[in-house]
Design goal:
heterodimer; B: 54 residues; mainly alpha; symport (chain A)
């Protein structure tokens, strides 16, 4: 299909890269200490950080994926946005402020606060790296599909080169800009994404007399009178098992968000717990607004482009939003939306890279290998080297996974975050008796359960072959070793993570009462918490 | 869920949008509670503790 102009798309994207590069270089001058590199000197305001959180969270999957899912499946696509938004209440009410007060740079800081450092830090870092890796791979592999759609690069080699270039730019941002540079990239991207979606939303509504009912009506009409578009369970209602799968997915989304390491790390970039609270408030407002836009964009794409045209386009479901942009504003709007979608991948990948590199350098290298005895500059140096290694792995993995069915990677990242990270965070903040053994059991137990169930689930093998395409929807073709019936492991693996944490704690006599008291006071009041670095 | 409320807007859509409204409402209520009731106490204890150290 020939729509839009790759030259226009590339030009607009290049403008974005140059502008953000300029800002990254400007803010990079104050990058000296570990607190600068990992946490932007803790000098961001709640508003800035909240916008950056929205930038980190609204990945290409949520922009392109949800708009497409609503266009084709209707209401069930909308349920994704509800899950992604409601999840923030967990972060706001239970995690954000206490985490900010207790830790310094990583999730492991909080979890290991009153435990034996080495085993707990190793475990927390392992699950941080696992979640980051799955999420990173999904983003990079998704970039390949986007390239095909937006830049007209059809052959695998060309897509590989684009993935490598995107990855290299991202690593450069992280190396030079640290958390400060990364945060500004997130902020700019969030504003562009929300503004772009906002303009399209108003445009779609204007075409339907600003009447939601008219819009819904024409979406149903365009789909040939399929009333199911406006009702839940159009996609997930086929059988009891698919309904169960939906519950499992919803659990993973709602409980996974507050365990995503790159989201958790953002809370350290603000000076106080109060600013962390403001960050989440802003993030909720922006993310909520954005998902309301996607509702209009999804049904708008259904009404104005049509579900069959979307499904037939290169990129399939993911092409709904770009196609709608072309339908509304022609080449220029498509170019802008394409560039924003690209910027989205770039920014999310940068956020994940700095999180993973911080976790390795701060938890594994500085505290486990060197036992805390090293110069501050050493740690940042290791973090930078790690960022390059992670970038290279992401680029290589992205090229290999290009064209694969990668939706499960995002689901897996959320499921692992909910099963391995959230239980241990909540236990260590709220359960007095919790101890080293419980933390280690909870993390490894949740992680292993989630990964094992995914490997033996239908997303990896054994989905029936679709007669239309001759391929199975599973990742592997022509083999079937699945025994777990659900696509998403959350329904089993999240309770398992909590159960392992409970059992591990009960099986060990260790209990550090004074340290718990210190942690409780510190987490609730901020006494002794890390301050912003003066500049 | 498919009972229509106004035009093509059915109960399902209303409930879905209601989730957004309730999320915003809970956020607002919590922020108000935290700013009014929690922060002053936390700040007082923090000042007492850190004042002692300095």
């Amino acid at each position: 299909m020939d729509i839009g102009s790759p030259a226009v798309n590339i030009t607009i994207f290049t403008i974005f890269v140059v502008a953000t590069l300029f800002i990254v270089l400007r803010v990079a001058r104050t990058n000296q200490t570990a607190a600068d590199y990992y946490a932007g000197g803790r000098s961001f305001t709640g508003q800035q950080n909240g916008t950056a959180i929205a930038g980190d969270y609204l990945s290409a999957a949520s922009f392109l994926g949800i708009a497409g899912a609503i266009a084709i499946y209707g209401y069930d696509g909308f349920l994704y946005s509800i899950g992604f938004l409601v999840a923030w209440l967990v972060a706001l009410l239970l995690v954000a402020e206490l985490l900010r007060n207790t830790g310094r740079f990583t999730m492991a800081d909080v979890v290991s606060f009153r435990m034996r450092q080495r085993p707990v830090r190793t475990a927390a870092s392992a699950s941080t790296l696992a979640v980051s890796f799955f999420y990173l791979l999904a983003q990079m592999a998704g970039a390949g599909g986007l390239v095909a759609l937006l830049l007209g690069v059809e052959d695998e080699g060309g897509q590989g080169i684009v993935i490598a270039v995107v990855g290299a730019i991202m690593v450069f941002y992280v190396l030079v800009g640290g958390m400060k540079g990364t945060t500004w990239v997130q902020i700019i991207k969030a504003i562009l994404l929300i503004a772009g979606a906002g303009v399209m939303t108003v445009w779609v509504m204007a075409k339907h007399n600003f009447n939601l009912s008219t819009l819904l009506g024409s979406a149903v009409e365009r789909a040939g009178g399929a009333d199911g578009l406006l009702e839940p369970m159009n996609r997930y209602g086929a059988s009891g098992m698919t309904k169960l799968d939906f519950i499992s997915l919803a659990l993973a989304l709602v409980l996974g968000t507050a365990g995503l390491p790159h989201v958790l790390m953002r809370f350290y970039t603000v000076p106080t717990a109060k600013a962390a609270r403001q960050s989440v408030t802003w993030a909720i407002a922006l993310i909520g607004l954005f998902y309301l836009f996607t509702l209009v964009l999804g049904y708008g794409a259904g009404a104005l482009v049509g579900p069959e045209e979307i499904a037939a386009a290169p990129g399939g479901v993911n092409s709904a939003a770009p196609l709608l942009a072309y339908e509304l504003g022609g080449t220029l709007l498509l170019g802008i939306i394409s560039a924003v979608a690209f910027a989205t991948i770039l920014a999310v990948v940068a956020g994940l890279t700095i999180t993973a590199s911080a976790s390795f350098a701060h938890d594994i290298y500085a505290n486990v290998i060197k036992k805390g005895e090293l110069k501050a500059n050493d740690e940042v140096r290791v973090a930078r080297i790690t960022a390059v290694v992670i970038g290279a792995v992401a680029i290589g993995g992205g090229i290999l996974a290009n064209g694969q069915n990668v939706a499960f990677l995002v689901a897996l990242a959320f499921a692992v975050a909910a099963s391995a990270n959230l239980p241990v965070i909540l236990y260590s903040l709220f359960w007095k008796r919790f101890n080293t053994s419980g933390a280690v059991w909870s993390i490894y137990g949740g992680l292993a359960t989630a990964v094992t169930l995914i490997v033996f689930s239908p997303v990896v093998s054994g989905k029936p072959v679709d007669p239309a395409t001759g391929t199975s929807a599973s990742m592997l073709q022509n083999v079937d070793f699945h025994w777990f019936p659900l696509d998403n492991p959350g329904l089993v693996s999240i309770p398992a993570g909590f159960l392992f944490g409970y059992l591990g704690t009960r099986l060990s006599k260790e209990f550090n009462a004074p340290k718990y008291a210190e942690m409780e006071v510190r987490s609730l009041t901020g006494a002794g918490a890390e301050k912003a670095t003066p500049h | 869920m498919s009972t229509e409320v106004a035009g093509n807007v059915n109960i399902g859509v209303v409930l879905g949008l209601g989730q957004f409204a309730s999320t915003f409402l809970i956020t607002w209520l919590y922020i108000r509670h935290a700013n009014r009731n929690l922060d002053p106490v936390a700040d007082r204890i923090r000042d007492e503790l850190e004042g002692g150290d300095a």
